[in-house]
């Protein structure tokens, strides 16, 4: 390759690389009271409200309302119907059950999304299932394709305990659904509902990725496994939360490929916001709107350097040009 050609390629690549390193600006930080079990595991912007879920509680959601510069929590209780057969191996299901007897949260809700009709969707990592909570009426489990888990495992996804489904996103019409496989490998599963039945168009697996990637320089640690910790659908685009990389990314609906990423490492890894063991204080929930992003943290009831021990929600400003800029 000639030097002139190499220079030209670098000039083309530099704007893309610059976009990937753009830092989101932190506007506000909210410590949440009213989550006695802690372990915030999902966020969703539903209409004008913000909702949260904990993976330690199987019977409630939390509506977050702003008052006096704080986010207050209101509990919504629900009753879960019998869980459908997941297709996960017996050994994985047994390990999940045993752990739940110690820590709570047998369903292990790890993600939350909603459609324009007010339906909320919670993904259960323990059962590889999605629970739909309508604004009126009884909750029900979605009838997902019988071969969903089988296809995912054949592609190298959902193979490891505690590394199963970690996020869910639904479009406003409630007709398209995406699920995130957490790590080792990580991936995206895509489903659609042309009429009344959920199906996979041309296969359930939209994306799968293995391997490690560099952690933010502030951590001074070895590369970490690629992961997803939540999904969000906004303005016709799919967004992924990637906790180990301290970033969120916009992804193509056709193949899950990255279109653009934004980092929040500068704010998250400031000295006062750090936790001792870096396995705590990780970003677990993502919700987007035109003005910015909400990111929820699971602190595992641990204290960070400034003494704060409650679950946290951060508010970041949207990037210049909005979330769809730089297509």
Automatic annotation (TrEMBL):
Residues 37-244 form the Phytase-like domain. Coiled coil: none annotated. It comes from Pseudomonas cavernae. GO terms for molecular function: isomerase activity. This is DNA topoisomerase IV. The keyword Isomerase applies. The keyword Isomerase applies. It comes from the Bacteria. Transmembrane segments: none annotated. Residues 1-20 form the signal peptide. Keywords: Isomerase, Signal. The lineage of its organism: Bacteria, Pseudomonadati, Pseudomonadota, Gammaproteobacteria, Pseudomonadales.
